[in-house]
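Report of the visiting student (M.T.), summer placement. My assignment was to run the structure pipeline on a short list of targets and document each run. The first record concerns DUF4232 domain-containing protein.
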Amino acid sequence: MRRTRLALPAALTGLLLLTACGAESRGAAGGGGATATTGCGKGDRVSAAPGDDGVTVLATGTGPRPCAAYSLTSRETEPFTYTVTLQFLSEAGQALTSVEDTAPAVAPGATVRRTVTADDLPPGASGTARVKVVKVRSVPTSEAPSEGGVCPPSGVRVYADQGDAAMGLRVVGLHLENCGTGTYRLQGHPRVELRDEDHEPVEGVTVLKGGEAVATGTGADGPALPLALEPGERAYAGLVWRNTVEAGMPVNAPYARVWAKPGAAPVTVTPELDLGTTGRLGVGPWKKEDDR
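After the run finished, the structure tokens were exported:
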């Protein structure tokens, strides 16, 4: 199967090299910690082989706001947008804070370097510079979700929220905003296809119309009514599932390709679907945001 991992726009490389961390030292690839150095400034370049996820921690820097430099290598054949989550650790290995870094429109086959800085550290944690990569996610740039900024050519923004989880029940909202100049019409349920870490289709999961197929009272139920969204108006639809594990292998699907309606361009979101062994995902109908 296709391996889907990392890189960044070449145009940013020069700037990133100027803001790198300290005197660099080689860290463990794909999630290992790097040796601490002093300060965040202009550092020497280090050659290191990327890990399985295409990410290598190159160096760290200490100070009131510790930093980390890492490289990303794309193994795709089209531009991808990547989100890397790095965790800053205490000397004892305790997690202190996490940082998400998003690299848009990464060219195929590119290798570049990024620098991140730790914020929201607990008192007494300044100077910490141990880092590990905890998660790497990627989506085709042509299908990247959009929550703000320039309106996409489609005239609508589609994205997923952070969701809610309680007692094994999960609910993630899909949101659509009409950022165009005309009326955008919806009726029914969005089409959803699940994808694994390598962006391959996930088998053995039934996608059901209506959140009530999984649980009631989530807001993802009710009839599918026709909607006419004027510019600036929004709609939402809920994804509902249970993380119940019984007999069999649990299913995890980080990605979902979403078609707002027939003929719409797909958008790939990252709801982190931990479906357990239930084999079911409920998809609610589109509703206007002000009807929630």
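Residues 10-141 form a domain with the Immunoglobulin-like fold (CATH 2.60.40). The chain has two domains: 10-141, 145-291. I thank the supervising group for their guidance throughout the placement.
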